[in-house]
Write a structure and sequence with these properties.
8 strands, alpha+beta, 8-stranded antiparallel sheet
Length: about 180
Amino acid sequence: MVDSVSQHPVPLFNEVAIADFDQFQIAVLTATQMVYRNLLSARVLVPERVYQTQGWLICDQQVIAHIDALKIGLVFSKNSPFRSIRRLAPSVPVFFEVMSSQPLPTSIQSRSFFVCNLPSSDFPHHTVFRCISPRFVRIYPFSSSSSLLEKVKCMLAERDSFISQNYKRLKQVPFYQKNFGL
């Protein structure tokens, strides 16, 4: 019998995850794949979200740069009894790099860990982001005929609707107080 997990070792990225960082958003392709996990004494197939390591940086409804080397951080320490969530989600830290032909806007550079220029390269403006956490994240179906900027616009509208519908409860949560100025 052929193992269905081994038939498609590389997932087909059929969704896009869009994360909002206030001054900008990032978008990366994503998919769900089935993987084996040990649960007590049994091996069980469970869904796991995987992300492309490359994506796009969006500011003011425009793709202004490409991102590379996306890594999703840990919510809990390695010594924690809880298993860390490794998915693009609010308050989960992410790490990525941007190489662009133009410098990023100052408001975005201020969130970066490191900025440098390498004048002799095709993309001379390098920006490194370390341990920054999104405020809001949504996942949408994505195909070659999809418009990335329309998906970003939809996510921003959903974010605003979420905040307005849950304002009283969110105002009591420090994360939302800090990140949305509630």
